[in-house]
Design a protein that fits this description.
Helix content is about 75%, strand content about 0%. It is mainly alpha-helical.
Length: about 350
């Protein structure tokens, strides 16, 4: 992406909204700290850090870890304040201990908040060590809460819509690939076309992998308890594996198969593409994927044509193996696609007991 392409409306508006959230969080937290007569600097810093999260779900995940990190930090600071007092060396030791303990507890980025908590207690003690720890814990937690509230009001960027859009795009794009497959000729160019399709499928599988963090974030957002995007993602991932095998087998076929076999395969690929295209809007709208037309007759027709090839004693064995492999994988993909029927990102409502 060029430098100039970053300065367009689609990029500048989200950046501007997030900058507004960060700035307001810091300002409000600073003023609240001043009104309460407590550590407004630490409140402002923690508010800015929390409000930098890219989504509501990520903010809720981080605020939980940062609360624990804050607790670890202020306790480390209280310990150093009690044992050694307050000074430059004591600040260094408190920050190091707070960060190390939080990291060993697996708190990740919250280790920096632990260091901030330790710094706050030792650098600006209020009363005894425990009182200082309690007040500084309140400072940082209040700042995090302010950052979250401002984000909810100004720019509640949720991960859920991004997850739904990403998942719905997978069957749409796979449907386009299958439509091209069913319409293509059985020529020497098939191998190159199949290789390009397999590369595109690999990209789609990576897209699902890239959705995993967003799926995790979406699971922490309000109203997401009955949503199960991870299940849909898993089914789509398996289906892409089957599609990859279809194109791999198709790429090995370089000569025209019998017309009846080609027609049966084309009908099945076309029907499968239609079903995939129909699944996308249902996923996007949190609705159950509707009932598909039965594909068993089309699968059976392709199987019959495959059996006719096997019984042909004059058939070339290598060519026969390739056609049988393609037939098998195409029918497997059709069955995988049929398994999408009735699936939904949202869980079905509970049935009241009679």
């Amino acid at each position: 992406m060029s430098f100039s392409s970053k300065f367009n409306r689609d990029n500048l508006i989200p950046i501007g909204r997030r900058a507004l959230v960060v700035a307001l969080s810091g300002l409000i937290a600073y003023e609240v700290g001043g009104l309460l007569g407590i550590g407004n600097k630490f409140i402002a810093i923690s508010a800015v850090i929390v409000s930098q999260a890219p989504s509501l779900g990520r903010s809720l995940i981080k605020i939980r870890k940062r609360t624990l990190g804050t607790l670890v930090g202020v306790l480390a600071g209280a310990l150093i304040l009690w044992l050694l007092g307050s000074g430059p060396l004591e600040i260094f030791i408190a920050i190091a201990i707070g960060y190390i303990v939080a990291a060993l507890l697996g708190l990740g980025d919250a280790s920096r908040i632990a260091a901030l908590g330790a710094l706050a207690v030792v650098m600006a003690p209020v009363g005894g060590p425990l009182i200082s720890a309690g007040i500084r814990f309140l400072d940082i937690f209040l700042g995090a809460l302010i950052g979250l509230v401002v984000m909810l009001i100004i720019y509640p960027d949720r991960a859920s819509p991004k997850v739904l859009a990403g998942l719905a795009a997978i069957p749409e794009k796979l449907a386009d690939l299958l439509t091209g497959l069913s319409a293509s000729d059985w020529t020497s160019e098939t191998g190159a076309d199949s290789a390009a399709a397999m590369e595109r499928i690999s990209e789609l599988r990576n897209e699902i992998g890239n959705l995993r963090p967003l799926i995790n974030e979406a699971g922490h957002e309000p109203g997401s308890r009955d949503h199960h995007p991870a299940l849909v993602a898993s089914v789509l991932q398996h289906m892409l594996g089957a599609a990859d095998a279809v194109f791999e087998e198709r790429g090995r076929i370089r000569t025209e198969p019998p017309k009846a076999f080609a027609a049966a395969a084309q009908r099945l690929a076309s029907r499968t593409a239609e079903q995939l295209a129909a699944a996308a809007p249902a996923i996007r709208s949190l609705q159950p994927i509707g009932e598909f037309p039965d594909q068993s007759a089309l699968c059976h027709a392709l199987l019959q044509e495959t059996e006719h090839l096997i019984t042909d004693e004059s058939a070339d064995s290598r060519r026969l193996i390739r056609l049988v492999g393609y037939s098998t994988e195409l029918r497997r993909l059709a069955h995988f696609t049929a398994s999408l029927e009735g699936l939904t990102v949202a869980a079905a409502p509970a049935v009241d007991a009679v």
